[in-house]
Every structure is written in structure tokens, then in C-alpha cells.
Amino acid sequence: MDFKVRMIQNFPKLGAVQDNFILHKKQIEKAIKDRIDLIIFPELSLTGYMLKDMVPVAAVHKEHSIITELQKLSKKISILIGLVEESNSVIFYNAAFYFEDGKLHFIHRKVYLPTYGMFEEERYFGAGNKIRAFETKFGRFGIAICEDALHPSFAYTLSQDRIKYLFVLASSPASGLSGKEGSFKTIDTWESLIRTYSMLFSIYTIYVNRSGVEDGISFLGGSQVVAPSGEVIKKLPYLETSEGDAILEEDKIRGARMYTPLLRDEKLGLTIKELKRIYDEDR
Amino acid sequence: MTKIDKLDLDKVLKLITNFIKYEIKKTGYKKVVLGLSGGLDSSTVAYLSVKALGNKNVIGFIMPYKTSSPDSKKHALVIAKKLKIKVFEVPITEMVDAYLSKFKNNISQVRQGNIMARQRMIVLYDKSEEFKGLVIGTGNKTEFLLGYTTLWGDSASALVPLGDLYKTQVRILARYIGVPEEIILKKPSADLWKGQTDEEDLGFTYADVDKLLYYMVDERYPVLQLQKLGYKKSFIDKVFKIIQRTQFKRKLPIIAKISARTIDHDFRYPRDWGL
Known about the structure:
Oligomer: heterodimer
Largest sheet of chain B: 4 strands, parallel
Distance between the termini of chain A: 45 Å
Helix content of chain B: 40-55%
CATH class of the domain at 3-193 in chain B: Alpha Beta
Strand order of the largest sheet of chain B: 3-2-1-4
Largest interface: A-B, 28 and 24 residues
Number of helices of chain B: 12
Shape of chain A: globular
């Protein structure tokens, strides 16, 4: 089925979860009025990125009133949102929650926590240990949170788990001027990456990156939807707060897979065999 | 091709103006105050601040000492006029001389320069309170890495829009946003004593050192790779030692850890905490 998504390229207040939720709620209510099927927020959009010691305070448990409210709102619209999850065993995860038909339908916990350069996620978060596709009323989804998508094995696994739509929620900063025409290197990385995934896996890639500034770090924005053909069908501006809609057409996936049956021809068994050999050799 | 010269100016400009706008707004302030020396860095910061906040929210201060070059004031006024910003002249001669006169022995040129830079800091922080504007710094990456600043003097500020651009890059950005050519082409000088120039103080040119710094710091080239670019080992060593020796200028004072939660070590919050 075809469905309409809205990408929210927002600028959360750092650590102010309630304030942020009020804004999220307004945006969700507006999207309901605009007859959007699925609204997508970036990584940690409910909390802001550079939380450091604020992580436990900004975290929400599944029973939190905000989660209850999001469940209610999801009776009229599906919601994909980035937040800090506090688990029953008091581990804090950088997570994405997907709500559908009044329920918290799926949780993805970020697997790859960057801890290098300006990043120190492993210091503050527990790492997820699942890479799973899941069924929704729109089709089969997969979620990657920022750095997850920089590991091709992650996207490959989701592809083999038969996703049709890959959602990448990000808080990616502007960093390094060694990109094309002296632009930010991180722009090149994301643009080439999501285009490649769309084309090689014949999927829609919906990349939603935040904007704004925290402690001098500017987040890039530049959210976009890339069709299975590799065509960018919607792109939001770089370095500013924005939102934008796109219609995802299931037929486009069918068309791409008919034309280039890469998924059909993929030799999963061979890949597993060779990976196992490499793994057993204990490199 | 040296990458340092290649900037996507449109995006860099957008990033910096947003940085100024939002980092000021978050704190509840609307204005900035800055020292206008008539030089490249402060002129560029004035342009960027006006772009980010509007001319009514940028207040410039010209703070000459009796030995300051008349050109400094002239160029600062040119900038203020072009940008239509409020500008005040607060000469620091009496303040500085009052201090200097307390000491009979000769105070070295470096000490005198530091006293002037810190006196200007006192003026700016006082005006910050008077005008309810944050002090916006005018330092660049070259200066910071080489420690070519006076600690708690010109290095003191609330935010530094050009702190991640080398002098060479600041010049490119300045030209792009329309800073007058006579200011761009002027020999960079701290103007702390007559005839002083940055490049004479440093012992090398910005053009040379900026490229080296870019490959050394940004690209993390090892020494052998830097030598392949044509830099002499002695120059590489010299610059590296300067960076290492001046690290303290880029850090807050260190605290003796005693408790389980020591500021910075275990008490870790961003400055934009809750903002």
C-alpha cells in the first residue's frame, strides 16, 4: 500500500523532555489534521543529543506518561520517535519507539554506539543486540539509529530480513570540510550511503536527521527520502529546522526488484558460510 | 590541491550564523558585545553577528591604548558605519597606565601587552552586564592552537564563532561576506606595541603554518607524511611543541580530584544543560 510520511527535522531543548514532548505533541496533532500516515522524528528527538550525565534524568520507561500519551495519539497516526529508554533492569538505551494503532508496536535499541572523536555514547548507553525487521500495517520496516547505518552488515541483515522500508533516525553533526566542493564530509557520507542502500536493497530509505546547535555542535539536517531507484524524492534543507512529506509507493519497490532482482539472487547461505569461516578463524 | 582553501562558503556561513543566533538565544540573551580592533577577525565576527542577530543587537567597542595605531580605530569605525551598529570608544590608556605606574621596574613588552588585553576584557565584561549582551570572541583556530592569545584577556569570551577556522579560512570567509578589502589585506597585528605584526611575533607566515596545522591537526598526518608535503622537520617540531606547550590556554583550570564526583571528570554536563 502507499502511505504518506512526514519527516520532522527538529531542534530539541537539551534534556528538557517535557518541553520537547509538548512540541512533539503539537507536531503529531498537526500531522493528524494533515492526514499523514506516519510521522518520523530523529534520533533522541525527545531529549536532545549531548546529554552526558543527564541520561538517567531524560530517560523514559515504557510505563512513562509520555509513552501512554504517544500510544493514544497513535490511534490516529503511526509514530516513530527517538528517545532514551530505561529498561526494567535499569539500563539506558538510545532507542527508537514505533507506535501503531494505539500500541507501542516495536522498539529498536541502537546497536552501534559511536565512542570516538566527539562521540561518547558507549559511556552513557547500553548497546542493543538485535537487528530485526518487523511487520507494520504499511509493510515490513527496519530501523537504524545513526551509526547503525554506517555498518553495512546492519542494513544487509535488515535487507535479508525482507524489509521494504529502512528508517534511519540520526543526530549527525556537520563535521570536516573535506567533502565535495569543500562541503561537510558528513553530508557526502550520508547522501552516498542512503542512496546506495536504496538501490542495492531495492528499498525506500527514509533518513531523518535533526537540526540545531548544542554546545557549538551543529546538526546537519538534510533529511531525505530515497526511492528504490536511487531517486531522492524529498529532501529537507541542510542546517535548519524543517519538515517535509513524501508518499511512499509500494509499486516502486516491486518495479525495482523486477528490474534488478538483487534480492532474489543474493546468496545468503554462501555469505553465512564465508562469514562463519572468517569468524571461526578468530581473526 | 590544499584542502584548506576550499570551503563551501554558503554552508559555513549558515552554520556560523545559526551558531551565533541559537547559542545566544538559548541563554535568554539577544545581544552581543565585542571589541572592534579594525582587524580581520573582529570585523568578520561583527559582520557575522549582524547577520545572525540584526544590527541593533550588536554593540562594538573600540578600546585604544595610546600606542595603538590610528588605523585600527579608523578601520573599526568603517566597519561600524557599514554595519550600522552602535559603537563606543573606551580608551584604556588611563586604566593601563594607572597600573603600570605602580611598578618602578621596567615592565616587559609582553607583560604590557597582556595587561592591555586583560584590561580590554574587563571593559567588555563590564559592558556585557550593562548592555545585557554576551561577549563574543574573535579568536581563530590558528591563534588558539599556537596559544597566540592572552589567557583571560582576548581569549575570554562566551562563544567563539571563528574558533574552528584557520586564519587563511577566515580571510576567505571575510571576502565572501563583504568585509572591505583594505581590512582583509592588512598585515595581522595584535597592535599591542608599535609596528607589531603577528607573523613577526610567530616567526612564520599564516599561509605556511595554517596548511601545516591543517594536515597535522585536522588530517592527523604523521611527521613523515608532513615532510612529504615539503615541510622541514625542524618547522614541524617547532609548531608541534608550541601546540603542546600552550595546551593549558585551551583548558579550564584543573581541579584536584577528591570527591566521587569531581567537576569535569565525573560531573559531566554540557554547557547547554537544559537549554
